[in-house]
């Protein structure tokens, strides 16, 4: 084998840091993108955010920039002496706002902060316990019970566990008393009649029973409802015939008792849900203008970035100092970051526009008109890789006249029709949901019956497929949906 040295030309693709940054920004959500931009603004002095200004501020800033450009900042910075007033990028009035005196008119209308701080369930219960005339030991037991409540208001611990924890705390306080389970049950009984009624119940049946007992004795069907709850497993199993036989109630009495139970609150702690609602901000907005669907990016999540002109003017071509080299590197990073953000917006708009073109029927008619669409179809049309389309549609939301949807919602598999066409699985789910919403509750549609109805509409699906779609919609089976009274 002869060894030789030669030149060879070949094409290869290298994943540059700029390309890695563009790919990473592409898959970020609007909130994550905002956080990433804030990190870049704090770390790169040559990158700045363009703030929205009023017309008066814009005129004054344009005059200031004109005066700023007329000054030779390079000579000032290279001078042998320091001037008394160095150029700064912030005015005093921008930091310290003018406060009007008593003789002057107020610059803004002072408004009272009407935000309310909602108490948690535990705080609400502790406030009530502190008003009761409990002994120190009973108060300690009540604290342990309240600490064992879950977010629904149910007791998430056994009586023995609460007794043991209360006894342990009592020993730490140098008390010689012995706490028994009966004492815990007595304190629990007191707490269950505080607001909200039924708090600290160990199961749903006990919670409903406490609420029924709290109702006036003259309440219609109260006695029948209490008797029905004694056979709660039969009620859950929807075994109406056996329930009527065990309780001795007829169909009308049982129906009235069930209607009364429906008016009760199943979860006493539901009003004290501490979890804050999370609102999704749309990345793309779709609206219809002059019979045409227009797609545009949401301006509220489109950051406007630019290069800081002051620091960029300090860069000198021939200077090889460390400070000048640092400014050059920061300038390059800022330009690449702005370019990556711009490419992200262009790609997102291109993909969203393609999705809207395919799903016009959904926007005009609803989910039942959803067309089958996969990532490959969009990737081929916009001339992007399938993985790129997957990244740009993840955690991105589009606001339509029919609501806010994730871009992934518009992609679905297809099912063949008897006419040789295709139907979206999302459309089939919408059809199943509509059929079940108008069914007779006494004779609910089985999965086989729904499959036959879909076949009449030209959609050939198996019974197990209908069951899979029904379960994905969190709709119970026909036997669980059946109402006998």
From TrEMBL:
<dbReference type="InterPro" id="IPR007046">
    <property type="entry name" value="RNA_pol_sigma_54_core-bd"/>
</dbReference>
<protein>
    <recommendedName>
        <fullName>RNA polymerase sigma-54 factor</fullName>
    </recommendedName>
</protein>
<keyword id="KW-0808">Transferase</keyword>
<dbReference type="GO" id="GO:0006352">
    <property type="term" value="P:DNA-templated transcription initiation"/>
</dbReference>
<dbReference type="InterPro" id="IPR038709">
    <property type="entry name" value="RpoN_core-bd_sf"/>
</dbReference>
<keyword id="KW-0731">Sigma factor</keyword>
<keyword id="KW-0238">DNA-binding</keyword>
<dbReference type="GO" id="GO:0003677">
    <property type="term" value="F:DNA binding"/>
</dbReference>
<comment type="function">
    <text>Sigma factors are initiation factors that promote the attachment of RNA polymerase to specific initiation sites and are then released.</text>
</comment>
<keyword id="KW-0805">Transcription regulation</keyword>
<dbReference type="Pfam" id="PF04552">
    <property type="entry name" value="Sigma54_DBD"/>
</dbReference>
<dbReference type="Pfam" id="PF00309">
    <property type="entry name" value="Sigma54_AID"/>
</dbReference>
<keyword id="KW-0548">Nucleotidyltransferase</keyword>
<dbReference type="GO" id="GO:0001216">
    <property type="term" value="F:DNA-binding transcription activator activity"/>
</dbReference>
<feature type="domain" description="RNA polymerase sigma factor 54 DNA-binding">
    <location>
        <begin position="325"/>
        <end position="482"/>
    </location>
</feature>
<dbReference type="InterPro" id="IPR000394">
    <property type="entry name" value="RNA_pol_sigma_54"/>
</dbReference>
<dbReference type="Pfam" id="PF04963">
    <property type="entry name" value="Sigma54_CBD"/>
</dbReference>
<keyword id="KW-0804">Transcription</keyword>
<comment type="similarity">
    <text>Belongs to the sigma-54 factor family.</text>
</comment>
<feature type="domain" description="RNA polymerase sigma factor 54 core-binding">
    <location>
        <begin position="114"/>
        <end position="311"/>
    </location>
</feature>
<keyword id="KW-0240">DNA-directed RNA polymerase</keyword>
<dbReference type="GO" id="GO:0000428">
    <property type="term" value="C:DNA-directed RNA polymerase complex"/>
</dbReference>
<dbReference type="InterPro" id="IPR007634">
    <property type="entry name" value="RNA_pol_sigma_54_DNA-bd"/>
</dbReference>
<dbReference type="GO" id="GO:0016779">
    <property type="term" value="F:nucleotidyltransferase activity"/>
</dbReference>
<dbReference type="GO" id="GO:0016987">
    <property type="term" value="F:sigma factor activity"/>
</dbReference>
């Amino acid at each position: 084998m002869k060894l030789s040295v030669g030149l060879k030309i070949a094409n290869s693709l290298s994943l540059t840091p700029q390309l890695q940054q563009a790919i990473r920004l592409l898959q970020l959500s609007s909130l994550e993108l905002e956080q990433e931009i804030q990190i870049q603004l704090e770390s790169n002095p040559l990158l700045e955010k363009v703030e929205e200004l009023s017309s008066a501020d814009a005129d004054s800033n344009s005059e200031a920039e004109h005066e700023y450009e007329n000054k030779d900042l390079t000579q000032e910075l290279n001078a042998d002496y320091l001037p008394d007033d160095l150029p700064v990028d912030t005015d005093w009035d921008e930091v310290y706002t003018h406060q009007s005196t008593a003789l002057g008119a107020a610059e803004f209308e002072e408004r009272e902060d009407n935000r309310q701080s909602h108490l948690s369930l535990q705080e609400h219960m502790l406030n009530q316990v502190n008003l009761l005339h409990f002994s120190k030991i009973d108060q300690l037991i009540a604290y342990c019970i309240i600490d064992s409540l879950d977010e629904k208001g149910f007791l998430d611990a056994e009586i023995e566990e609460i007794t043991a924890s209360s006894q342990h705390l009592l020993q730490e306080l140098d008390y010689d008393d012995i706490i028994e389970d009966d004492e815990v049950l007595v304190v629990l009984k007191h707490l269950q009649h505080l607001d909200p009624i039924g708090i600290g119940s160990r199961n749903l049946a006990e919670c409903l029973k406490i609420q029924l007992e709290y109702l006036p004795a003259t309440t219609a069907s109260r006695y029948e409802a209490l008797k029905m709850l004694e056979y709660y497993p039969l009620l859950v199993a929807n075994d109406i015939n056996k329930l009527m036989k065990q309780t001795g109630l007829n169909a009308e009495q049982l129906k009235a008792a069930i209607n009364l139970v429906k008016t009760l609150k199943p979860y006493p702690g539901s009003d004290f849900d501490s979890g804050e609602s999370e609102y999704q901000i749309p990345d793309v907005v779709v609206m219809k203008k002059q019979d045409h669907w227009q797609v545009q990016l949401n301006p509220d999540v489109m950051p406007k970035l630019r290069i800081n002109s002051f620091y960029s003017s300090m860069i000198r071509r021939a200077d090889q100092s460390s400070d000048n080299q640092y400014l050059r590197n920061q300038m390059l990073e800022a330009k690449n970051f702005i370019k990556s953000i711009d490419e992200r917006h262009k790609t997102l708009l291109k993909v969203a526009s393609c999705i809207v073109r395919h799903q016009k029927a959904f926007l005009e008619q609803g989910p039942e008109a959803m067309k089958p669409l996969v990532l490959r179809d969009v990737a081929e049309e916009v001339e992007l890789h399938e993985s790129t389309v997957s990244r740009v549609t993840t955690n991105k939301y589009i606001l339509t006249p029919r609501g806010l949807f994730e871009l992934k919602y518009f992609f679905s598999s297809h099912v063949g029709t008897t006419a040789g066409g295709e139907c979206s699985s999302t459309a089939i789910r919408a059809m199943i949901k509509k059929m079940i919403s108008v069914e007779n509750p006494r004779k609910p549609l089985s999965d086989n019956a729904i499959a036959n109805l879909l076949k009449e509409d030209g959609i050939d699906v198996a019974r197990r497929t209908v069951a899979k779609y029904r379960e994905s919609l969190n709709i119970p089976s026909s036997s669980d949906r059946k109402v006998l009274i």
